């Protein structure tokens, strides 16, 4: 078992090296880190205010005072993009975390135990995955109320099935490994077998799924906000800022009100997906980098 722990450490050290050699993933990670630092630090450094209207500056184009102009009620578009990033990224990460906290334990139980436990959990997965996600999201958000907290709960609650299926399939193979059988022969209880020996070796693909879930949740939040069912104005998100493009006058005459938010949204989601692709390549030695 000591040899197994040493082999696991070597695997993760090699995985880090493989990820670093994945240039696109590394560039994407740097962009995301810089974006997160900007979202956290710029409001204090630049004294940004996303809520206050400036008289006489309605729908003003970019100038020396407002880097990206103002919206229809005179609010700073740049400030709203920065603060909107806080909300959008928070929804993405927290919802993905909630999904993982629900799905990983269920997948571990389904993979380790046979019989009724596995049947119940996997049938629940099938039931949840049979419903159209967008429709259920819209219904639940309407019931709970349109807010960032509701989106986190709804997206997290509906996003656990992918983790469960992934961990379930991984546990089925890991539980038959020699080191698990050796630990079982020493009288180790099932709880120790699952937590100490099986789960750590089934977690590698979870990190990949988590990264893709973050990107998917950010897009889901933006889509629901665009439809008016997400975070409500005046709280800014990238989705409800793009919603301004629904009017033809804004779409054609005031591109600063929605194009920057759209660009930031696309760049963020693409970078997160590239990071996830880098993680997948790093954790699977069969994939050549």
Give me some keywords for this one:
mainly alpha, 289 residues, MetI-like fold
What do you see in this structure?
It is a single chain. The chain has a single domain (about 1-285), classed as MetI-like (MetI-like fold, Orthogonal Bundle), CATH 1.10.3720.10. The protein starts with a helix and ends in a 6-residue tail after the last helix. The protein has about 290 residues and is an all-alpha fold. It has 13 helices and no strands.
- CATH architecture title: Orthogonal Bundle
Q: Sketch the major β-sheet.
A: none
Class of secondary structure makeup: mainly alpha
Please report the distance between the alpha carbons of the first and last residues: 31 Å
What CATH calls the topology is MetI-like fold
Gyration radius (Cα, Å) is 23 Å
**How would you describe the shape?**
elongated
Q: Taking all residues together, what is the mean pLDDT?
A: 86
CATH class: Mainly Alpha
Structurally, the number of domains stands at 1
**Strand elements, count:** 0
Taken in chain order, the helices and strands follow as HHHHHHHHHHHHH
Which spans of ≥5 residues are poorly predicted at pLDDT below 50? Answer: none
Question: Helix amount, in percent?
Answer: over 70%
Strand content: under 5%
The CATH H-level homologous superfamily: MetI-like
The helix count comes to: 13
